[in-house]
Design brief:
- The protein is α+β, with helices and mostly antiparallel strands.
- Helix content is 30%, strand content 26%.
- The chain is built from twelve helices and 18 strands.
- A seven-stranded antiparallel sheet has the order 2-1-6-7-8-9-10, covered by helices on one side. Strands 11-15-16-5-17-18 form a six-stranded mixed sheet, sandwiched between helices. A three-stranded antiparallel sheet has the order 12-13-14.
Length: 409
């Protein structure tokens, strides 16, 4: 389970920002609270099943997802995919002379197998400057234990963390690689658990839907998964009665009817040639969503609402915000422009987040719960009126139209 994620000095983020899935003490809708909040056994933590991030275009919403993606990719691949001296794919906040020279920072807090792990690092394009890992049992009054702290070429390690001590003593960690990644390559149980958790967290970008599409297609060889995806599609009223892979091509079947409206067999179509873009996206999301709900994993989606009808978007969210369909506490994090979702009927105030750029061009991330508003307030109307910020400031372009018209005369 994801507790929180923080990022600093990366892309449009300058100062540290934190997206938290920890439920606050707010009292909103009791029915929603019972569905979206789940207590962490042995602790006082209460986590939430979903989080929605709103904001204007170019406000930094997608950069938050990119930060999560980079964090995941670098941890998984820093040891095996990069050679000594190879650059780390980081870009600091460049609109400030000082921050452009400083490292980017990332930290995550997660729960795995009864323990809370807090892991993070600071790095620039050339090397990892700082890295840390802490562990705490999910028990009342349990203390956080430092497993290791790496800084300026030196690493302090907990005396019982023998595998980490051996790897450090043998100088097996490159400057441009993470100790956590290195430990995982040598089957250290703690590192393997954390990386397994990351591998089970899907990050899906609107700009890379082809990847999600291919991932979904690859799982259609399993008849059980194929049938569940078909049922998932039927629920959305896409008109699809069946989906099959024939000679590595995806084929969808639709019911045909005679002039009287009576059933008249099925008609097959090439899925990617004849189905709408919205259908393709809904299909590509089916597998990661079902997988997350089955196993209590996480799905992180940039522009969830893109190409989807608002009711379909709301349905996907409802799958996570229900103890009936989400008994294993899977989590959904997504960015969106769909203001229809800004309602206490769907979200608690602490599930709603906004991104906005300040006067220096840096992205700020904050929650609706930071505002003193009633849970009965018209969130959508107030947001669109600018009450919570995070909306575009639209200038007057009438003079441009006027100039264009004059040039034609």
């Amino acid at each position: 389970m994801l507790i929180q994620f923080s990022v600093s000095n990366y892309l449009s983020f300058k100062d540290p920002v934190t997206l938290s899935n920890v439920a606050s003490s707010l009292k909103d809708n009791d029915l929603i609270d019972k569905e979206v909040i789940f207590p962490v056994e042995g602790t006082e933590l209460r986590l939430m099943s979903s989080a929605a991030v709103f904001g204007a275009n170019a406000s930094g919403k997608s950069n938050l997802i990119k930060a999560l993606s980079l964090f995941k990719e670098f941890i998984i691949n820093s040891f095996k995919a990069r050679q000594a001296g190879e650059k780390i794919p980081l870009e600091s906040f460049r609109l400030n002379r000082e921050s452009s020279k400083d490292p980017s920072g990332f930290e995550i807090s997660i729960i795995v197998d009864g323990f809370i792990y807090r892991y993070g690092f600071e790095a620039n394009e050339k090397n990892v400057e700082t890295e840390w890992l802490y562990k705490k049992a999910c028990k009342k009054r349990a203390k956080e234990v430092e497993l290791y702290y790496r800084s300026e070429g030196k690493t302090s390690v907990h005396p019982k963390y023998s595998q980490a001590i051996e790897i450090i003593n043998r100088k097996m960690v490159r400057d441009n690689a993470l100790l956590l990644s290195t430990l995982a390559q040598f089957n250290d149980s703690t590192a393997v658990k954390i990386i397994k958790w990351l591998n089970e967290s899907d990050v899906i970008f609107c700009s890379d839907e082809e990847k999600a599409w291919k991932n979904a297609v690859n799982h259609l060889d399993d008849p059980n998964i194929r049938q569940r995806i078909v049922e998932f599609s039927k629920f959305a009223d896409l008109g699809i009665s069946n989906i099959e892979k024939i000679n590595d091509h995806l084929v969808s079947s639709h019911h045909a009817f005679d002039d009287e409206g009576n059933p008249d067999g099925d008609v097959s179509f090439s899925f990617d040639d004849h189905e709408s873009e919205g259908t393709l996206k809904y299909f590509s999301l089916a597998y990661p969503i079902l997988e997350a709900l089955d196993h209590g994993n996480r799905v992180i989606i940039d522009e969830l609402d893109s190409k989807l009808h608002p009711l379909l978007t709301e349905h996907i969210i409802a799958l996570f915000n229900s103890t009936e369909t989400n008994p294993r506490h899977a989590q959904l994090i997504f960015t969106t422009h769909d203001t229809n979702l800004l309602t206490s009927r769907i979200f608690r105030r602490d599930q709603v987040w906004f991104t906005q750029k300040n006067k220096c061009g840096a992205t700020e991330l904050y929650s609706l719960s930071d505002y003193k508003v009633r849970c009965s307030s018209p969130f959508e109307r107030d947001y669109l009126s600018g009450k919570y910020g995070a909306v575009p400031v639209i200038g007057n372009i009438n003079h441009i139209i006027k100039i264009g018209n004059e040039s034609e005369n």
